[in-house]
């Protein structure tokens, strides 16, 4: 692991890390006649059905309605099915759709040994030779529960372990 | 009404309900120098001038400003007039515009008899032979006021009446 | 009107404007199983039934619910009736209640002549001899509609007319 | 079930439903140095440790920080432990605490037979002889998944079944 | 200044003010693993690096995360650099990008003399011969601090001075 | 620094860290007729005048107003002056006030040497012998700017340096 800052197939020393570019679909709809408790399962279903991401934004609509905008990001080939799912599981009668470009950083996963066990970290090269690191949330959560410690402690130990081994 | 689940011109038994697709315009602008009390009449004006929908999103801008994003959805032929209206009635100097596709479910309106009188329900076929139903808000509100009962009771009676007659 | 900055019964030159202090009740409840379109009529009813103010705050509840907190401010003698109204017209099973002190500025209303007609302004003395002024929203809205001009123009004319006459 | 509107031990015909009153504790803290992904597990822990409710409100703090206020409602005897939990699992150094009164409607649970199986409904008498009814979310969710239908359909069937049997 | 409503090079008496149209880039990313206190400096950096505007929207993501959407508006030629900056200074691994059209009102700046000194006002012709006016925020803030008066007073004086001189 | 987990005057091994308890004042007001750009300077003034904290919450008021609630936390002896300041610098005519208890963790500050220089960390003992640590935001920001690196890197280095030295 020591050398992982030295070699980077994605970014030769002379170049710039090539962020990946793809065309995705963003679906949006405003929901003003659906109780809040139906939204959680909807999000789970969308993510289980191929959405890359899905989220809610609180909005204020006509007639003083504290409503919610649903946003769903997906690959073009999943759009039809996800629209059908939104139509079936929400009260909406209309879904807005548009294309977006998405730039993504190439990433890879490593593991570090911590006093809470092995934790994966996600590495992304945001500039030539410059990496950002993020401990895997689910690993940290599992470790925090297993050791009955705050999440913050697992994150800190993971980052420290990675930092020490990397330097 | 009994048979309304049986026949569906929009969706032959073998097919899929044809959702309607159209290209609309979405106008957006960030408002950080306009008092909150001016927003309500603005929304009314926009809707009265051909906007299909209009809503506010609370945003956080530079210099710690708790500002508001205005969004307006409209047919392309209304965009010029609505932009002029936004420029006249808000403090903004710039309006963002982009096209969106909108998929809409074919819908029709029926009426049901309830103990609070006749209430319209909106029906939309979200999958072949599968309908979702929504009582008309304004009908329910009028009935709730006339009978001095909670809106929830009118909705429930309407859905029950529809369900009983439909099954 | 010229002299209105000179005399102020509420605040003798030597003193401090006496803000009014009273004990009010704040009712709050979290709503996660009620569609957004029911909220507008609820607000109207609360205000028509003696609430001094009522408002919504978007909150995020368990199970990923984008819910709404309702807040209602009222005099102690209206609390019973308003709680009954909230219980009847929302889905909630519990209402939180607590006392708050409210400090209010003494205020009075004057009128100014503008090119859009007579407009009331609300005046409040926030420090000895220092007044803040606010055009009456409903007057401005009516004038803006009658003259088909932006609200901003009516406000500006009103403030200018007041400022000119006052100085 | 037919007769359930006839008898109501909590509210003799001549009286008013006695809403239950108790004193609870509301804990609040502002969190501006904790990543969003740590908040979900925190909510689960709070609810598992005796919080009656817990929720987030987006706030805007100094230095343009889009932060989050955590609110936790609990019985007085759980306050110490929940504060300790918040101190351990968040970045905060200070927790605000105050008492609130909570009025609750007496409620009871019944079951109704629907075409999706047996579903519990929660009943609360919000005025003498006036009941509001809410299908149990978890029952509906389970039924919707088991029958692969939208939640809305299970709710509607449940309300209709209850309404038909009740009337 | 008296005549400034009479002549308007941008809008001959017979025409319509020509709002300026340009194509811009809107960058967006959802941030759920970055503490709130890192957002303020990020906004400053984006604006210092060529962003025309940048703002935050509170969103609700999967796993009950109270997250933040960052939006950045910029000219096409700044998009590469701003994306690099976002990748470097946030936790994100993906940035959404799309084109938007922006309509802008032609504007010019004048000055007015007030009892708090010279204040600039921004003028924009939103319809032929119809101007809206906005005092310059930074001028007003500086004057308010120098004279130790509320911002509202500086704004009002500025608008009044402009209105009087203009009419 | 090595031994700082061993000795803790605030919490003898046998006991529980004594969180500090004090009574504070929470001031709140709803602002619906004040432009967003006036809010930033207001926050600065409040914090400069003895507020312990001050923040905004987006709310939705009557007549479809996307308004803002201002909250200010302060010691009782600052309440009069802060109310006067709010009355002077906002459009409000009424301010709600109530007492809250605040529990605070005892904290102390240490410094760690990092590759970006000396950085202070705040330490708080949230349970006997259990410390949480937070790098000082302003130190990290200054270092990040001086070394032209992301804030995340300074935080990570600081936490790692602290963790290594502490263990």
Could you describe the 3D structure shown?
Six copies of one chain form a homohexamer. With 167 residues, chain A is an alpha+beta fold. Chain A has four helices and seven strands. In chain A, the strands form two sheets. Chain A has a four-stranded antiparallel beta sheet. In chain A, helix 3 (137-147) crosses helix 4. The longest helix of chain A has 16 residues, at 151-166. Chain A starts with 19 loop residues before the first strand and ends with a helix. Chains in contact: A-B, A-C, A-D, A-E, A-F, B-C, B-D, B-E, B-F, C-D, C-E, C-F, D-E, D-F, E-F. Chain A binds chain E through residues 19, 24, 26, 43-44, 47, 53-58, 71, 73, 98-105, 107, 122, 124, 126-127, 130, 132, 134, 137, and chain E through 28, 30, 33, 57-62, 67, 69, 83-84, 87-88, 91, 93-98.
Give a brief outline of the structure.
Six copies of one chain form a homohexamer. Chain A is α+β, with helices and mostly antiparallel strands.
Note the main sheet of chain A. 4 strands, antiparallel
SS-based class of chain A = alpha+beta
Strand order of the main beta sheet of chain A, please? 2-3-1-4
Q: What is the average per-residue confidence, as pLDDT of chain A, rounded to a whole number?
A: 89
Q: How many beta-strand elements of chain A?
A: 7
Distance between the termini of chain A: 10 Å
Shape annotation of chain A: globular
Task: Pick out the low-confidence regions of chain A.
Answer: 1-15
Helix content of chain A: 25-40%
Roughly how many Å is the radius of gyration of chain A?
A: 21 Å
Oligomer: homohexamer
């Amino acid at each position: 692991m020591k050398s992982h800052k030295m070699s980077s197939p994605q970014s030769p020393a002379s170049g710039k890390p090539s962020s990946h570019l793809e065309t995705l679909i963003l679906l949006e709809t405003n929901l003003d006649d659906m109780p809040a408790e139906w939204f959680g399962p909807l999000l789970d279903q969308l993510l289980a059905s191929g959405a890359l991401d899905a989220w809610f934004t609180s909005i204020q609509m006509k007639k003083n309605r504290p409503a919610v905008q649903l946003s769903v990001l997906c690959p073009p080939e999943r759009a039809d099915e996800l629209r059908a799912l939104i139509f079936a599981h929400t009260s909406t009668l209309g879904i807005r759709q548009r294309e977006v470009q998405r730039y993504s950083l190439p990433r890879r996963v490593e593991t570090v040994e911590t006093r809470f066990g092995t934790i994966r970290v996600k590495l992304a090269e945001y500039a030539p030779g410059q990496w950002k690191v993020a401990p895997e949330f689910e690993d940290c959560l599992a470790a925090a529960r297993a050791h009955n410690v705050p999440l913050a402690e697992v994150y800190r130990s993971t980052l420290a372990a990675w930092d020490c081994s990397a330097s």
